[in-house]
Amino acid sequence: MKILVTPASFKPTTIGPAMDKLRSFADILVFNPQNRPLCEDELIPLLEDCEGCIAGLDPFTKRVFEYAEKLKVVSRYGTGVDNVDIEAAKERGITVCRTPGVNSQAVAELVFGLLLSLVRKLPHLDRSTREGKWDRSVGTELHKKTLGILGLGAVGKTVAQIAGGFSMKVLACDPVMDNEYAKAHGITPVNLDRLARESDFLSLHLPLKMDTRHILSGTVMRTMKKGAIIVNTARGGLIDEEAACVLLKSGHLGGLALDVYEEEPPHSTPLFVLDNVIVTPHTAARTAEATAAMAEQSVQNLIDAFA
Q: Over 90: is that where the pLDDT of 279 sits?
């Protein structure tokens, strides 16, 4: 059996039980030669004669599936499947698996790393201190502020739990709200309008679908408090980046932290020149613990699907 492995953090040199299990299962392993997600034209030749794939963020489109004639299983190394054309997979009888929840702690911790970096201006202070300056700027505390969570799934719930350590008031909006969980953990369910109006900080944790693309539109972001901060570690298309840039420049938004982008990797964006923007390279789930768990679960899902 021939299996393609595309995640950049799951390499031929990876050591551990997941790789051992995969090597025992597959006759031939093919790995991503790039240190980034592949495009369609790069993915298609690598999938030739492959029956299975451990898939990263690469685009598994209808066109890709049409060329991958032997493909039977796509096992996502991660939670989201917005990069997989599920309907096209169904038409060709391809099973699609994912690993929900295994990276929630890693992503949630980065949310607060980004929040603290923005409110305490850590990148600026680091640079200025290295340059010999002594710029002791005044920051803001998270303590007792209002945190809005857009998407109360596994990651959103973990973010809410961590927020308790800062004594934050937590609001949450989700198309399918877990009201029982919200009540048990002191989370107030709200609609999107109230979430935007009342949040000092807003963290995004929704999948990217037709009805969630640009859910944070310019109209919605203009209803937010002056100085509010947004963190997106979910999917880039959830935010209208152009509208956010205008509101950041005007001072209406206090800051924006992005780990994900509408185009990845982002080649050019005016957001990168703004001092109130912090960016990271889609790295929220990349901790030693989370990558090991995603590898283990994605390999087991692949094996189970064939079984």
A: yes
- The H-or-E segment that residue 50 falls in is none
Q: Which position among 76, 98, 205, 282 bears the catalytic label? A: 282
- Would you call 264 a catalytic residue per the annotation? yes
Residues 80 and 190 in one domain: no
CB neighbour list of residue 225: distance below 8 Å, 6 or more residues apart: 197, 198, 199, 200
Q: Which two tokens stand for residue 23?
A: 């090597």
* Catalytic option among 76, 98, 235, 286: 235
Count CB-CB contacts under 10 A for residue 32: 22
Question: Quick check: is 127 catalytic?
Answer: no
Query: What is the count of structural domains for the chain?
Result: 2
User: What integer pLDDT is reported at residue 227 of this predicted model?
Assistant: 97
Q: SS3 of 152, please?
A: coil
Burial (CB count within 10 angstroms: exposed 0-12, middle 13-18, buried 19+), residue 36: middle
φ and ψ at 265, to 5 degrees?
A: -70, 150
- Same domain? For 223 and 140 the reply is yes
Q: CA 36, CA 163: separation in Å to the nearest integer?
A: 32
- pLDDT tens for 127-179 read 999 999 999 999 999 999 999 999 999 999 999 999 999 999 999 999 999 99
Q: 51-90 as b/e, with b when 16 or more CB fall inside 10 Å?
A: bbbbbbbbbbeeebbeebeebbbbbbbbbbbbbbbeebbe
pLDDT exceeds 90 at position 123: yes
**Co-location of 174 and 90 in the same domain:** no
Mean pLDDT, residues 199-221: 96
Q: Is 48 in the active site?
A: no
Which of 48, 109, 198, 264 is an active site residue? 264
107 closest CA partner among 57, 155, 74, 176 = 155
Structural domain range at position 154: 104-279
